[in-house]
Specification:
Elements (H helix, E strand, L loop, with lengths): L3 E6 L6 H7 L2 E3 L2 E4 L2 E4 L6 H7 L8 E3 L3 H13 L4 E6 L7 H15 L4 E6 L4 H16 L4 H11 L4 E5 L4 H5 L17 E7 L2 E8 L2 H16 L4 E8 L3 H12 L3 E9 L2 H7 L4 E7 L1
Parallel strand pairs: 1-2, 1-6, 6-7, 11-12
Antiparallel strand pairs: 3-4, 3-5, 8-9, 8-13, 9-10, 11-13
Helix pairs in contact: 3-4, 5-6, 8-9
């Protein structure tokens, strides 16, 4: 069987033990903080970054890896004996990582034409994107073929959903990532916004007056989407708010059957846009 590598980036926010266990390879995003250039989860670690972020007078800028970053990794994988690569990326509508990976594939195949590189736009973010990398890596370790793995990811894309809430949309607004949820800004001080992804863009999916009400709303939305007889895999994601993620977990698991769950803290390159205190879910039916 061909040796298949699964490639993604730091914003998947998959817990490190799972990254290691499944042999997922990843490229860090960039964070520009004043004159500093940090690498997501390399020189920018979660705890110190989230402690600093609320004090920032100006929001750091984030940037996707460039083609050269992916060229370096693809060439390294070829040197290690991989003949096929599945490269899985955040929505191309909110980040340039997918386009960078496509450009890298073209460059690498000029010098290593024996490689097969499949680059996939998940049209999603965070652990929705992360679940696709996890399931792909499990299939690769089970020696499934690359066509099966690509088909598996494409089946997941339309049914993998994100819903999250925060105390404020300030960070998304300042970072220019608010997408089609801009109309929520007018009542920002009075609501807990619920946001999701549709067709690769951030959209409003609801609002609540308190965190507890927001968590109940998220649980109801999941139940409505999958039905109480269906099973799901779910990640409870947060930014410096693990206890809030666990409260949300309790609400969700009263309503639906969960066959696998993870609690995942967002990487700084994502947390800079959602802000500390964010809690939410990324799930798909199985």
């Amino acid at each position: 069987m061909p040796k298949i590598a699964i490639v993604t980036d730091s914003t998947v926010s998959i817990p490190e033990p799972i990254i290691d266990e499944l042999k997922i390879r990843w490229v860090p995003y960039y964070i520009h903080r004043g004159h500093e250039v940090l690498r997501d989860l390399v020189s920018a670690q979660r705890d110190p970054f989230y402690k600093w972020l609320p004090t920032a007078r100006e929001l750091p800028k984030t940037a996707s890896p460039g083609p050269g970053d992916y060229v370096t990794l693809y060439e390294q994988l070829a040197d290690e004996g991989y003949s096929e690569i599945v490269s899985i990326h955040m929505s191309s509508k909110v980040s340039g990582a997918y386009q960078a990976a496509v450009a890298a594939r073209t460059l690498v195949l000029e010098t290593i034409p024996r490689l097969r590189i499949e680059v996939i736009d998940t049209l999603n973010v965070s652990m929705c994107h992360g679940w696709m990398a996890i399931e792909a890596a499990r299939s690769a370790l089970a020696e499934k073929g690359i066509d099966q793995i690509v088909e598996q990811i494409h089946r997941m894309i339309p049914v993998t959903q994100m819903i999250q809430t925060a105390d404020t949309l300030r960070y998304l607004y300042m970072g220019g990532r608010i997408g089609k949820a801009k109309h929520l800004m007018g009542s920002i001080l009075n609501i807990k916004p619920l946001i999701g992804m549709r067709d690769g863009e951030i959209v409003a999916v609801g609002q609540a007056r308190s965190r507890s009400e927001a968590y109940r709303s998220i649980a109801r939305l999941i139940e409505k989407a999958v039905g109480n007889k269906k099973k799901i895999k779910i990640a409870y994601v947060h930014a410096a708010a693990r206890e809030e993620a666990l409260k949300l977990k309790d609400q969700v698991e009263e309503r639906v059957t969960v066959v696998e769950s993870l609690v995942c803290e967002l990487s700084p390159a994502l947390g800079v846009h959602s802000g500390p205190g964010t809690a939410g879910v990324c799930y798909f039916p199985v």
